[in-house]
Specification:
- The protein is an all-alpha fold.
- It has one domain.
- 72% of the residues lie in helices and 0% in strands.
- It is built from eight helices and no strands.
- The radius of gyration is 27 Å and the shape is flat.
- Keywords: Membrane, Transmembrane, Transmembrane helix.
- Pfam families: DUF2985.
- One of its GO terms (molecular function) is cyclase activity.
Length: 208
């Protein structure tokens, strides 16, 4: 009986378990390659700003600066200014690219069309009435930037007591509403939808 079990287990002795080698320098090389890619610069900058503002809010909210900022009202104003600075820096980072895309949309050359499709169209493919959809999308993004600029001016120009609340609320609605509207429009418009091929093209692909 034991010989039978030994015979059944014998083939397993020659089985080699292959485990992938982990090399730290491969990870380091891949990280540096990712970091040097210009498309990832905004991600790094955005992550830095998120970490910075999160740290500031955590420090203020945890009470570490209670001696320096004893009153609740100045403390809330500090948090408001930190958020305002973060939002403005983020808009300043994104707005030049949006202006460039607007100029490319106006010029509408072949190279511009390819770049805009890569930036806004799913899978970088041509869409019906894409120029009109791109124009509406960029208008919303510009409204987001302009609303944040005006909001930043109000936060810097006026104190918390003198700041016009109605105008601040309008700027917040315009800025946030435009950003949300642009995101929703981008995903639900033909720009962000899967491209449906005509019936003739589908039959041709099936035959191939």
């Amino acid at each position: 009986m034991l010989e039978k079990f030994d015979h059944m287990a014998e083939p397993r002795k020659n089985v080699n378990v292959v485990v992938g080698d982990f090399h730290l320098h491969h990870v380091d090389t891949a990280f540096h390659r990712w970091l040097l890619d210009q498309r990832n610069e905004k991600v790094v900058f955005w992550s830095f700003l998120v970490g910075l503002i999160g740290t500031c809010i955590l420090v203020i909210g945890s009470g570490l600066l209670d001696d320096a900022i004893p009153s609740n009202m100045p403390r809330g104003e500090v948090i408001n200014q930190v958020i305002n600075a973060f939002s403005t820096c983020l808009v300043l980072c994104l707005h030049p690219e949006r202006c460039l895309h607007s100029y490319m949309l106006y010029r509408w050359q072949s190279s511009d069309q390819i770049k805009l499709r890569e930036a806004y169209c799913k899978n970088g493919t041509k869409r019906p009435n894409e120029r009109l959809h791109l124009m509406l999308l960029l208008v919303l993004w510009h409204l987001n930037c302009v609303g944040q600029y005006v909001l930043c001016y109000l936060n810097l120009q006026y104190t918390a007591a003198d700041r016009p609340g109605t105008l601040v609320a309008i700027c917040l609605v315009v800025s946030l509403g435009a950003a949300i509207g642009a995101s929703v429009y981008h995903s639900h418009s033909p720009l962000g939808q899967d491209l449906e091929l005509p019936h003739d093209d589908v039959e041709r692909l099936v035959r191939i």
